[in-house]
Amino acid sequence: RGRVAGKLALVTGGAQGLGAAQARMLAREGARVLVTDLNEDGAAETARAIEAECGAGTGFSMKLDVTDETAWEDAIDAAREHLGGLSVLVNNAGIGVKGNIETCDLATWRHGFAVNVDSVFLGCQKAIPLMRDNQPGSIVNISSIAGLIASDTMPGYNASKAAVWMLSKSVALYCAKQGWNIRCNSVHPTFIDTPILDGMVKNTGYEKSVVMEKLARQIPLKRVGEADDIANGVLYLASDESKFMTGAELKLDGGISA
Ligand code: NAD
C-alpha cells in the first residue's frame, strides 16, 4: 500500500538532510529503500529509522562514494541482492562549491563537479541496465534553483547544478528513444533548512536565525523550505502519478524563480 508500493529505490546522500527525508518518505509510501552515503553510519541510521517505522525488510544501507565508479557497481549489485532489483534511483548527494570566479581553486572546482555531476552520470549509467529489468522506472536527479539562476558568488555550484539539469534531459530522451519506460527528471530546490546551509550560515558570521529570516524574506512564500517539501516532489516523480513526465524540471522554490 502507498503511492510507491512495490518500488525498489536507491537514494544517494541519504544519511541526513534531504536524502534522509526522501528515503523515509519513499519507504513510508511503500517502497523498499537502499540508503547510501559516504557516511556509512549515517546511512545505517536512516535505514534503521525506516525499519522502525515501516517494518523489517524495508530499509537497507551501504557506503557509497558517488564519485567512485567501482563503488557504484557494488551498489547496483547490492540493490539486486537486497531489494531484488531497482526501479527508482534518486541522485541526491551533492555539495556546495566554495568560491567566486576569482577565489575558487581548481581542486575545489573539480571536487564539486565530481560529487555533483560525475555522481549523476555514473548513477544513471550503472543503474539503467538493472532498471530496464524493473520497468516502469524513474530517475530523480537533485539539481538546485542555482542550476537555473546564476549568482556571482558560486560559479562552481551554478555550473555543476546546470549540468545535472541538462544531463537529466539527455538521459530522459535516450531512454524514451530506446523504448524503455525509464523516466528521468530534475528537482530544483531553493534554500532548505538542512546541514548544507550551516556552512553558508557560518560564512556570514551571523546567527542562524538571522540568516534564515533574511533568506525567507527573499522567497515569495516567506519561508525557507523544509526537507519534506522536497521529499514530496521526489515522491511524486518516483511514483506512477508522474508517468507522462520525463525530461522535465520540478522547481520547489517557494516562488523565487517565478
Ligand atoms: P547535506 O549536506 O545535508 O547532505 C548531503 C549528503 O551527501 C551528506 O549526507 C553527505 O555525507 C553526502 N555526500 C557528500 N559527498 C558525498 C559523496 N562523495 N558520496 C556520497 N555521499 C556524499 O545536504 P542537503 O541539503 O541534504 O542536500 C542534498 C542535495 O540537495 C544536494 O545535491 C544539494 O546540492 C541539493 N540542494 C540542497 C539545497 C538546500 O538548501 N539544502 C538547495 C538546493 C539543492
From TrEMBL:
Keywords linked to the UniProt accession: Oxidoreductase
Pfam families in alphabetical order: adh_short_C2 (PF13561)
Protein name: SDR family oxidoreductase
Source taxon at top rank: Bacteria
Database matches in SUPFAM superfamilies: NAD(P)-binding Rossmann-fold domains (SSF51735)
Listed InterPro entries: NAD(P)-bd_dom_sf, Sc_DH/Rdtase_CS, SDR_fam
Family the entry assigns: Belongs to the short-chain dehydrogenases/reductases (SDR) family.
Species annotation: Qipengyuania spongiae
